[in-house]
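pasting SnoaL-like domain-containing protein for the record, 137 residues
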Amino acid sequence: MELALEDRLAVTELISLYGHLVDAGELDRWAEVFTPDVVYDVSDFGQGRLTGLAALTGAALAQGAGNPVAHHITNVVIEEVTDERVRARSKGLGVMADGSCGSATYVDTVVRVGDGWRISHRRVLARRVPLNGLGQG
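structre below
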């Protein structure tokens, strides 16, 4: 199925909005990005799976100064499409207060809610080796 251009733009902006909200500390606006029962999987970072907006907020607050000061979301690609659900991948770049940075891949399930879209599942994968390990010996 072909996703309408308006929906592609809406999904891309939704994914981008996450970085703006978290960096501004506007955690009370999570419902603009995620479904109430969102599953946020940060197992690749040793933090397990968080379920629901309150758990997401609690984890962000618990991490405190350990959070990046900047989340940059790029390279959004919408891969699987149905009328009510899409799978999207994007790249995340987190800049820490000391200037160090890290890279991640977001794998999102985005669902249509009313007249908009929300992320119902996000898996965050750490990028630790070039070429995903290809050619490393």
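Strands lie at 34-41, 49-51, 70-81, 85-95, 101-113, 116-127.
The mean pLDDT is 94.
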